[in-house]
Amino acid sequence: MEHLRFEFKTPGNRPSGRASALVGVVSSGNLEVMVESTDLNEACQVEVNTSARGFAAIWQAVLTDFAERHDLAGLRISINDGGATPAVVSLRLDQAIEEFLGMSS
Amino acid sequence: MSDLSGRHRGHSYYEANARGRITHLLDAGSFREILGPTERLTSPHLELLGLPCAFDDGIVVGHGRIDGRQVLIASQEGGFMGGAVGEVHGAKLTGLLELAVQERPAAVLLLLESGGVRLHEANAGLIAISEIIRALLAARAAGIPVIGLIGGVYGCFGGMGIVARCCDSLIINEEGRLGLSGPDVIETTMGVEEFDAADRALVWRTVGGKHRLLLGEVQRLVEDDIAAFRSAALETLEQPIQDLSLEALEAEHQALSARLTDYGSCQDATEIWSQLGLHDPLQLPLLDIQSFLKATCKIGREGA
Amino acid sequence: MPAGRMQELLEAVLEPGDRVCLEGNNQKQADFLAGCLAKVNPERVHDLHMVQSVIALPEHIELFERGIAHKVDFSFSGPVGVRMAQLVAAGKIQIGAIHTYLELFGRYFIDLTPQVALIVAHSADREGNLYTGPNTEDTPTIVEATAFKSGIVIAQVNQIVDRLPRVDIPADWVDFVTQAPTPHFIEPLFTRDPAQVGEIKILMAMMVIKGIYAEYGINRLNHGVGFDAAAIELLLPTYADSLGLKGKICRHWMLNPHPTLIPAIESGFVQSVYSPGSELGMEGYVSARPDVFFTGADGSQRTNRAFSHAAGHYACDLFIGSTLQMDLDGNSSTVTLGRIAGYGGAPNLGSDARGRRHCQPAWLKAGRQAHDRPAAMPRGRKLVVQMVETFREQMQPTFVERLDAWTFMESSGMELPPVMVYGDDVSHIVTEEGIANLLLCRTEEERSEAIRGVAGYTPVGQARSRSMVENLRDRGIIQRPEDLGIDKRLATRDLLAARSIKELVHWSGGLYQPPQRFRNW
Q: Is B29 in CB contact (< 8 Å) with chain A?
């Protein structure tokens, strides 16, 4: 297991979404992403627990792009990962934000 | 986009995850989760073994309504460790069943998908199974019907197979599987000559939904559609709860011994179907649900 | 010829050093004859030169272990690739060359003509005429090369009957027929369970349909055998139909009868399918659709690998396939170290047909895009699309600076690195990040930057120049899903026309009978 923590300073808006949202399942090649609102202003905290060791740089890159894409602040994002590829991680992150903002069908 | 092909297709129970099943089974927006993922009540054991946790430990429990009626519901996540029961997972299920005795809901719905005890936390998992069974029987004794739904990728095996057979009533789709030892376990312990777990047709005619219905071990066989499970659950709610008197139990024991006498020497499920008087047993696995129910309607399906 | 005397016959007709063709593709296998050959006395029969499409069975390996055969010219060796590599290293196998199918078949008529061919058919009549059933595959090619150059043709059949449904090989081309004790083996090689098609493949398939098939009006095509291609097939009746593309794309196919194509056939996308081989379980469905498939007067499918691959090369406007590794020139390879896999048909299908002359709109459009000098002689261009996720399982990057094929060449003494599809044949690369159109690239630098621009978070992808990638995007060389107007949220399994083998059976009206291992009912 590897525990990674990232914090993104974003000038973005604090979204008015649900209190929390969870998407995905922890299984081989898959992950769960939980989004919660926090009192943090102008920051987005991400905590990753992953079964695949040694990919911190890729997580950093994937999450940086994600933070830029959505420009959101005041969020705590927690991830349990069963070794998903960056493509799946990006997809789940986007789905989690949509769910959190109440945009998903 | 679900209907682009021009064919009606609902929400597949088999495809859905634990949360998706609850969403489409219950009245819209009625579900209130107990000990949800933000509580982070995760397994204390997996971390030590270097395995990833799930925020809900692979089971979702809570309150909800089905056609307006209050129910308690639990849904196991097969995707997380095959739905296996660990300490926290088991405690959430036990607690829900104990809550039923206090709250007296119209029913407890158990959406079962599990390979059984989580081997990584074996002792805690084994104890959890016995606690679940005790709590389930206590709920039934208190007059609360406990209805099991089975139809996920991982089936319902091991300790949870026993839990399933302790329910008042079971609903299954044809993809659903119910048994004690899973196919791989049988192959590993008895040899591939005895049971070839890669022969999926053999696996399904031995532990699949259709065979379980013909043996009277499940009460309803439905299409792989969450709406069909919902209707079947509502039908079950309409029925009187099972007789738990000594006479009823003795009658069931007798029926089970008779079954062993009648079919004990059969080498394959098709031989049992043949003895049940069904025509063309080899074709039964290939029939769709409606045709299958029609072809087998004359078989008296006994209670659980 | 009684089966029990086959070994004796082989010892009588074979001379040391003979060239022997043992029929077997990755579908049907002359397994009984392979077993007999592996049991002959190596003191009597040795140092044979095997020429065969595929090395797949343990008996094939045994030939070399026992010294019965020494040299081999072949095309594919998937299942026993690791053992092959060990035997080559031990000096037990000398590889002549590894070919693409059509190339190997060509050599049967030039410099690798078999002296003895051991072939397989479904049944024979008393005269010795053969019926191959739907899996005709390589049989006509092998027999043609052997029988008309004074070679000996020996056939194994499942049964001998009074009257054949149809004659696939005439009796006077065959010297000996034996009824094998057990029916020959056929592998269901092209069955892809829709249950295993995930969201990322669905997103990529949406991009292919909208960004390539619709864009070029692709109507004559060939698909690889992976789950990526299966995803496209399963989106035709849903996503492609919603874009109004029925009748406008995907009408004529060179393809094995993939079960995942059933929904597209049933919803009216597909007009014709010509196949190199059949697929187990598809026999009944194929027979019921003679309007689409090539079938005999008896109703069963007739296939032919040589004609199919000629058709795939010359008559198709597009090939789409997947690979394991790709470099910055677009060269791709499926080599993994310590394992000899071979090529199969991909190098032939996945290459521009330089000899082609007939025009089609898609071919002309691709040719125009590839043209960089107005004064140059105009010509068309085949579309060769590689569809890959940027990472494979276990986080292995698909995109690399240097292919493992180079190391493989160095360690095995080959003259060239084993490349499956050469970069200069590739027109498009599709990943989950987007489409790179290599036809529009004008310099080598642009080309490699276009590849980096769809290589995701692989080290190769992260080394991109962001400004140059944005420039390529402005010029339409790189297209992201949003540039194509694709809503990523639709990329769910609900978009598949069938999500399980069972739904494929329903689409076929119960005519598709999947092998037991694919059933979960």
A: no
